[in-house]
Amino acid sequence: MSPRLRRWSPKSSPASSSSNPSEYQASARYAARRSDRVSPFEKILRTPEEEPLSYLVLDRISKRFGDFSALNDIHLSVERGTARAILGENGAGKTTLMNVLYGLYRPTEGSIHIDGKAVSLKSPADAIANGVGMIHQHMHLANALTVTENIVLGLGGPHNLLNLRRHSAQIAEMSEQYGLAVEPDQPVWKLPMGMRQRVEILKMLYRGAKILVLDEPTSVLAPNEIDSFLDRIRALRDAGTTILFVTHKLDEVMHVADAVSVMRQGRVVAERDIAQTNMRQLSQLMVGRDVEPVRLPRHAEPGRVALECTNLVARSDRGLTALDGISLCVRQGEVLGIAGVDGNGQSELAEVICGLRRLESGRVVADGREITALSVSARMQGARIGYVPEDRHGTGLVLDHSIATNFVLRSFRRKPVARFGLIDLRAVSSGARKLMQRYDVRSRSSGQAARELSGGNQQKIILAREMEAAPQILVVMQATKGLDVGAVEFVQRKILEERDRGVAVLYISTELEHVAEVADRIAVMHRGRITGEVLPHEATAERIGMLMSGISAGEIH
Q1: pTM
Q2: Which element (helix H / strand E) includes 557?
Q3: N or C: which end of the chain has fewer CB within 10 A?
Q4: What domains are there in the chain, each with its CATH number?
Q5: What DSSP element (H or E) covers 381?
Q6: Does the pLDDT value for residue 263 go beyond 50?
């Protein structure tokens, strides 16, 4: 059976229909107005003889930004209490479509129907009033406030913020009911990412959301949090919530979804029941071709040591020990992968090497020269260190600046960008167009704000900026997090090209399969220490799992 439509039973009389007369009359008027161009999705309208075929329908949705068409005649219908995965490459239009549903964008053409009624969603407030809640890829929480304060923030009605005790009790009851346990009085800044994700979901459910849109919800979670999160999403679906699940991760689609819609270049190109497809087929539908793991043949053996870290000790932002005497080295023309559960010192390690975090003790040596006391700019210019940060939005890009401006953040003082102390805007624009083509950055123009791009295109801007600076050492943090299979392939290929150019690459990721695909050696971190090192072909899930849990290599038999 097609995932777009479900079977229905005709009713014998108007009295047996669950719709009321006013709904039917409004629907009939709507159908009459559009009788000249009736689409298959007009079948959602209630009549005296039948129920609506789908709970949520997006009919003929198009969205244009100037001359750029982000969505083209999208048709999507979802049954009540089911989970629909929205799959596609970065830039395919998935998030734009969900932003239309949530009222952040108004469609250029088309209509939205919920439970048989056409709705006008001009803002998120309209969406929430119609039972639509959205969990964004980057969380919208006030860290200084408690869980309860975040959930009730902005609620309408008198005295909603004054009776926090009543709200806390209701939130505690709801969190237990849905298996989303949280502590209502805990400040959000103290919560791990998995808990913050629960708060976001509870915030929407507390406002009465019947349709829950999840935009890349696992991109901020550690690997050990993902399975339990997906189980909770399935429980919400089974309890009657309609789920739209936007993701790049095919295994998550197979775990959660009842059906999947595949988008490419602003269109829905395929729809499948999940029982009638597999990950390989979905991958082909996403990118229009087979995608195989990247493993470029090595051009030369690793050279001399380019980066050496000895007995590094550093603290986290909370004052806790994040690096506890860690030592490692990376050679020229080598990729050293760092694996481990998020939060075990990986971020602090990258920041210490790049000069963004102070060392309490230890030494960092680049190409035989100690750089422990050097500034960030001295390391980037003198030691030629490139850095791809974990947080694309907070650290990697200036979101409100253009693509072209973000490309030159490292080079705006040098030729050809700078001439006689002034920035040559023509050179900036010309260089940006070349880099967009070379790194496959898809956008309207080089003047488009970085904020408006998909995560994959944002990542490509950062890669282009750092790699075009010709680094000798490249520190890459979570380079493939939240990227689709095509973008992952592109990023990995670029990293291996840097390796073959003689660059020493420190590749840090919580996604073990991606580490194993590009690394020459894999070191595993646990609580600020390296518990062991393995070669890619030795990196079994069992062995890596033991190292991730703190069992040292010497204890594994």
Answers
A1: 0.65
A2: none
A3: C
A4: 305-384+470-555 (3.40.50.300)
A5: helix 376-381
A6: yes
